[in-house]
Amino acid sequence: MITLMLLGACSPSLFMQQAPTMNRYLLDWAPDPATPAKASVTSDTRNTGKPDIQLNSITAAPGYDGPQMIYFRKPHQLEFYAHNRWAAPPGRMLEPILLRMLEDSGLFRGVAGPDIAVDAELTLNVKLLYLKQVFSNLSSEVDMALEVDLVATVDARLIASHRFSVVEPVTEPTPYGGVQAADRATRRLLASVQTFLIRQLQRESE
Predict the structure, then answer these.
(1) How far apart are CA 55 and CA 66, in angstroms?
(2) Long-range contacts made by residues 43-50, C-beta under 8 angstroms, separation at least 24?
(3) Whose C-alpha in 15, 18, 52, 64 is 20 to 30 A from the C-alpha of 100?
(4) What does the pLDDT read at residue 84?
(5) Where residue 126 sits, what CATH number does that domain have?
(6) 68-104 tens-digit pLDDT
(7) For residue 109, is it within any domain?
(8) What is the DSSP letter of 14?
(9) The pTM is what?
(10) Is 30 within a domain?
(11) Among candidates 199, 126, 122, which has minimal Cα distance to 155?
(12) How many structural domains comprise the chain?
């Protein structure tokens, strides 16, 4: 009887395990200090006029189109952090970042996102091939890759296509360490994409 009374007096919460907190992360971006300044990157297009460009919705390779934070301990075996996620699928988070990079580059007269109906001279198609944290021994790294197509909209002509990939060391082998490395990888990739666009615009204007 005493045992039953004691159990009845206890709060039910004492017998319930608290659910772990779900941590959610955003990708962030800041211009790479090594990226050419606006004045220099626009000098070759100033005389011929700058084109407009539209960024289509970013697609993602299978396995990388959700908000899960992916890591690898074995080749080909995707694993997911149980209590850590991206705030949205990485491809979706990359869209405003890429739009900001295109606007800040000074290369274009106008920049439009995928939800805006415009007659832009150029279209940019981007696919996220992978964004993953790879563990080996006691260290880890973030691997990230994009496939970029620059298209002349009027005749759907492929001007250029390129695959960009970076490997960024992780300073601490944790989900948050992976997020910080992903931010650095994003900055490096976007700097490469901007250089790619500069070269293609220069060739188109020749």
Answers:
(1) 20
(2) 44/198, 44/201, 44/202, 44/205, 45/107, 45/201, 45/202, 45/205, 48/205, 49/109, 50/107, 50/108, 50/109
(3) 64
(4) 95
(5) 3.40.50.10610
(6) 999 999 988 999 999 999 999 999 999 999 999 999 9
(7) yes
(8) G
(9) 0.83
(10) no
(11) 122
(12) 1
